[in-house]
Specification:
Helix content is 33%, strand content 30%. By secondary structure, it is an alpha+beta fold.
Length: 296
């Protein structure tokens, strides 16, 4: 985060992938209990925030298809802070998108987290990260993790975070089919499943603790992948393509449909990127882990 003037801030909002995603229960209100190992990426959106004389939230974006009203998580997060801590104040926010939409990469959640951090600084609210996380989890389960970034175990409904050792240096290839996936639809489909194969989240944690990248790749798992594949059979074909091109491991992130591959060699990652760009009518992005935390 870099302050430009007293009334202006520029905030990076980093994408994430799930090295492991498990659903371990469901509350009566419909919220799901999760156990996820999450990893932030260098790929990021950028939010420009500045105070303004007009009360309320004034949101713009470089993507026409994105709403700029209270159906946008950035707008809702900023409006919530204004209402709670500085009513009558105004803020202009411009969102520059680089993270694919409806992709399972926490694009909306990380933008909302960046808005919370930016507003906290811009208006000198002095709220702790824990306080921001308590507010954020009411808007989205991934927001608490997106507030801190790095590598972490996420539990509860997303609000219980345990920092984990950094993912060893590697290259991350992302490939998203053209059509996006609704998180709500994926969870609804999961709830209708009678047989579930749970990922080895403990094995994933052990691999990270020992700095074993091959072990991390072997323990990749996502309980939502089978239900998303019903609508997106290309998820498996993308995964197999990455493995053929030399990925240590490949798995779907979040509710999908984005597939990520972990590569140790830049040349193999670049070749796989080129191959998938020719085969896929979607978005293919080569990036890396972000280990700076706090979306720096």
């Amino acid at each position: 985060m870099t302050g430009q003037q007293n009334n202006r801030r520029e905030i990076r909002a980093h994408a994430k992938i799930n090295l492991s995603l498990d659903i371990v229960g469901r509350r009566e209100d419909g919220y799901h209990f999760v156990r996820m190992v999450m990893q932030s990426l260098a790929l990021h959106d950028t939010l420009l925030l500045e105070t303004c004389a007009d009360p309320g939230v004034w949101l713009t974006t470089d993507r026409r298809e994105l709403a700029v009203d209270d159906s946008n998580l950035v707008h809702r997060a900023a409006a919530r802070l204004l209402q709670m801590y500085c009513p009558g104040q105004g803020v202009r926010i411009h969102l520059e998108k680089r993270i694919p939409l409806s992709a399972g990469l926490a694009g909306g959640s990380t933008d909302a987290a960046a808005a919370l951090r930016g507003m906290n600084d811009l208006f000198s609210l002095g709220l702790t990260e824990e306080a921001l996380a308590r507010l954020g989890v009411q808007l989205g389960a991934d927001i608490p993790f997106c507030l801190c970034g790095g590598t972490a175990l996420s539990e509860g409904i997303g609000e219980i975070l345990t920092a984990l050792p950094a993912l060893p240096p590697c290259h991350i290839l992302l490939a998203k089919p053209e059509k996006g996936m609704s998180t709500a639809e994926a969870y609804k489909a999961f709830d209708a499943e009678t047989e579930v194969r749970h990922p080895d989240t403990d094995g994933q944690i052990r691999a990270l603790q020992s700095g074993d990248l091959a072990g991390v790749a072997a323990a990749l798992g996502n309980v939502l992948e089978p239900v998303t594949e019903v609508q997106y059979p290309e998820v498996e074909s993308i995964r197999q393509c990455m493995l053929r091109e030399g990925a240590l491991g490949a798995r779907m992130s979040g509710s999908g449909p984005t597939v990520f591959g972990i590569f140790t060699e830049a040349e193999k990652a670049e070749k796989a990127c080129s191959v998938l760009k020719k085969k896929l009518s979607g978005e293919v992005i080569l990036t890396a882990p972000n280990q700076n935390g706090r979306n720096a």
